[in-house]
Every structure is written in C-alpha cells, then in structure tokens.
Amino acid sequence: MSVEFVDTNVQVYARDEHAGVKRAPAARLLEQLWRDKRGATSIQVLCEFYAVTTQKLRSPLSPEDARLVVHSLSQWCVHAPSSLDVLRAGELAQRYRLSFWDAMIVRSAIALECSVLWSEDFQDGAVYDGVTVRNPFK
C-alpha cells in the first residue's frame, strides 16, 4: 500500500478554525490517512506548517500546540531532502514549469514513492513522475 503526501495547505486547513468549508474535508482526509497509516510529509511541510499556524492565522496556534502537531506528524513517512533532492527539484521546476518550492514538494512525494499528492496548489489530476495530484476540496 502506497503512502499519500499531504501539502501544507491541507494540514493548515484541518486545524484552522477560520478555514470555513475547507476545514471539514481536510480534517476527514487526515483522519483517514492516520487510520490507514498512509500519511506522508516532508521537513519543508513541517516547517511551513509551524510558521503558518503560529504566525499567519487569524487565531494562531500556540507554539506549544504547533510543536505537538509537528511531533505527531513526524510519525508519518517524512522526507528529509538532501542536496541531491534540491538538484532534482530544480530539474522538476524547469521540466514542469513549477516554482522551486512546489517542485520541492513534488520531489519529496516522488522520493517517498507516493501515489497521491494532496494539495490545492497544483492542478487537480496533474501527474508528476508518477505522483497524481488530488485537490481534497473538489
């Protein structure tokens, strides 16, 4: 059974009390991935999650609560990019015309051999080197 990568935006919506209609589907997806033990993420997502949830939300998480979530997510398959991954992400960015940071997300999903990348930041249904993007809000 393959793992599924969850981008920062989905992680944030699941925990943001002001996320509106996006909160419930994001939370359901995360619950399902926890139940099935299929969740995957990256160091980049963990960093972005901490920064966004403690600094940019209307009702930010406390640093302690954000650390607890990051600690919990570290139980998933977590990709820690190397310098080679940075080079590969640069190639992906050029090939697929992605921003470098989006290419790093794709590279992490590829490195973890994910079947799916859950995100609203990419075109739903797009395929990057075998990883299919799915928007949980469509």
Secondary-structure blueprint of this entry?
Elements: E1 4-6, H1 8-15, H2 23-36, E2 39-42, H3 43-55, H4 63-73, E3 77-79, H5 83-96, H6 100-111, E4 116-118, E5 127-128, E6 131-134
Parallel strand pairs: 1-2, 1-4, 2-3, 4-6
Antiparallel strand pairs: 5-6
What does this structure look like?
The protein is an alpha/beta fold and 138 residues long. The protein has a single domain, classed as Rossmann fold (3-Layer(aba) Sandwich), CATH 3.40.50. 52% of the residues lie in helices and 14% in strands. The protein contains six helices and six strands; from the N terminus they run βααβααβααβββ. The protein has a six-stranded mixed beta sheet with strand order 3-2-1-4-6-5. A hairpin with a 2-residue loop joins β5 and β6. α1 crosses α2, α3 packs antiparallel against α4 and α5 crosses α6. The longest helix has 14 residues.
In short:
With 138 residues, this protein is of the alpha/beta class. The protein is built from six helices and six strands; from the N terminus they run βααβααβααβββ.
